[in-house]
Specification:
- With about 400 residues, this protein is α+β, with helices and mostly antiparallel strands.
- The chain folds into three domains: about 100 residues, 3-Layer(aba) Sandwich (Rossmann fold), CATH 3.40.50.20; about 60 residues, ATP-grasp fold, A domain (Dna Ligase, domain 1, 2-Layer Sandwich); about 190 residues, 2-Layer Sandwich (D-amino Acid Aminotransferase, Chain A, domain 1), CATH 3.30.470.
- The chain contains 13 helices and 18 strands.
- Strands 10, 11, 12, 13, 14, 15, 16, 17 and 18 form a nine-stranded antiparallel beta sheet that branches. A five-stranded mixed beta sheet has the order 1-4-3-2-5, sandwiched between helices.
- Helix 1 packs across helix 11.
- The longest helix has 18 residues.
- The N and C termini lie far apart (about 55 Å).
- The structure holds adenosine-5'-diphosphate (ADP).
- Adenosine-5'-diphosphate binds next to strand 7 and strand 15.
Length: about 400
């Protein structure tokens, strides 16, 4: 038996049984799932690496074990009504075994694979007629050079599996750099052109197993060094483009049979919208929704996973801006500056309880406002105080 941290006392015999939602992973996303679960009196149980995971520190009940071990996954799945995720990196073959053994997974492994394998995603969506960038499966530097002969250098190489926040993505300018990128990847990589990206957009879509969907307003994400830095809701794009992006996201989710909360990341290019990637779980691009939408993405995830009615996705202010709080270069901890950040009225500060390291996502700040500029100014003011860069 794996160790159970923060075990919840048994409910009295006459109490109605509470649903138990499982989440594989125990980082900041599970920590925010936990906040939503508390409000709905849903029991959450996580699979954690250890006692210092962000959600375990916040008191969530967690089994400690290796998500690569089928016996651990079996024990975990047997103790919950439904298994959901806060990350992509669980072996899809193990998930399929759980599904075959009768466990309920949200999303099902066949849908989850679209978020776990970038090549599978590009092939599957491309064949179904969704707009994806030109791509090839490159096994060698020669393959990459052939692709570049058509599309031009530099090209973008992506490890099909296991990357996040830009880890596993490389812009390469010649065959030598391509060979270096491919060296640790025995199964090769996805190669695509370096796109002219005008904006990066994202749409959160919730879907239940009986096919009800709810899409959030289209948001714009701004990346710094391939990590989300700022998030603007709604995206400042015209209504027709927003409708097109939203429709595209919902059709993709329906096509792959996705359930739970799913984030569809899109690129706006001179050739129109292109699918970038999918996240089959609450995602950084939806953090604004905690304060900025009628139903947060985390509550929506709980509702969708349990097949409950989905909540309204409407914004509760004309604009919401979220800024990630990233560990500063000097290694200092943003917590030291929390009281000063809280003096910024209207700034909603979230700290994840993670150890401060330069470049690590440690929290975020959301501000609402009558317009984007006002919300942006408030969110950045508090984030810069936390990061120690405020003037
Ligand atoms: P991850 O899974 O690590 O988040 P992504 O595939 O989303 O990786 O890429 C990370 C970032 O790199 C994107 O948000 C975008 O800014 C940039 N990027 C990705 N693909 C391309 C491309 N083909 N052309 C130009 N920039 C890209």
């Amino acid at each position: 038996m794996a160790e159970l941290l923060n075990p919840r006392p048994p409910a009295p015999d006459d109490a109605p049984r509470r649903p138990r939602l499982g989440v594989l992973g125990a980082g900041q996303l599970a920590r925010m799932d936990q906040q939503a679960a508390i409000a709905l009196d849903v029991d959450l149980r996580l699979l954690a690496d250890g006692p210092s995971d962000a959600a375990v520190l916040a008191g969530a009940e967690a089994l400690v074990g290796d998500h690569g071990d089928l016996d651990v996954l079996r024990e975990f799945a047997s103790g919950v009504d439904v298994v959901t995720f806060e990350f992509e990196g669980v072996d899809n073959a193990l998930l399929r075994t759980l599904e075959e053994e009768g466990h309920r997974l949200v999303p099902a492994p066949a849908a989850k694979l679209f978020a776990q394998d970038k090549l599978h995603q590009r092939r599957g969506l491309g064949e179904a007629g969704f707009p994806v960038p030109p791509f090839e499966h490159a096994r060698t530097a020669v393959d990459v050079a052939e692709f570049a002969a058509t599309h031009g250098w530099p090209v973008v190489l992506k490890a099909p599996r296991g990357g996040y926040d830009g880890r596993g993505v490389g812009v390469v300018a010649d065959a030598q750099a391509a060979a270096a990128f491919l060296a640790p990847l025995p199964d090769g990589a996805l190669v695509e052109p370096a796109l002219r990206i005008e904006r990066e957009l994202a749409v959160q879509v919730a879907r239940t197993s009986d096919g009800a969907t709810a899409a959030y307003p289209v948001v714009e994400t701004v990346q710094h060094e391939a990590m989300l830095r700022e998030l603007v809701a709604p995206a400042e794009i015209d209504d027709a483009l927003a409708a097109e992006a939203s429709d595209l996201a919902v059709r993709i989710v329906e096509h792959i049979g996705g359930t739970g909360l799913i984030a569809v990341e899109l690129f706006l290019t001179p050739d129109g919208l292109q699918v970038n990637e999918l996240a089959m779980r609450p995602h950084n691009s939806g953090h604004y929704s905690i304060e900025g939408a009628v139903t947060s993405q985390f509550e929506q995830h709980v509702r969708a996973a349990l097949d409950w009615p989905l909540g309204s996705t409407e914004l509760i202010a004309p604009a919401a801006v979220t800024v990630n709080v990233v560990g500063p270069e000097d290694g200092s901890d943003p917590r030291e500056r929390l009281p000063a950040a809280l003096a910024v009225q209207g700034a909603h500060v979230h700290l994840y309880g993670k150890g401060a390291r330069p470049g690590r996502k440690l929290g975020h700040v959301t501000a609402l406002g009558p317009d984007v500029a006002t919300a942006r100014a408030t969110a950045w003011r508090a984030a810069e105080i936390l990061e120690g860069t405020a003037s």
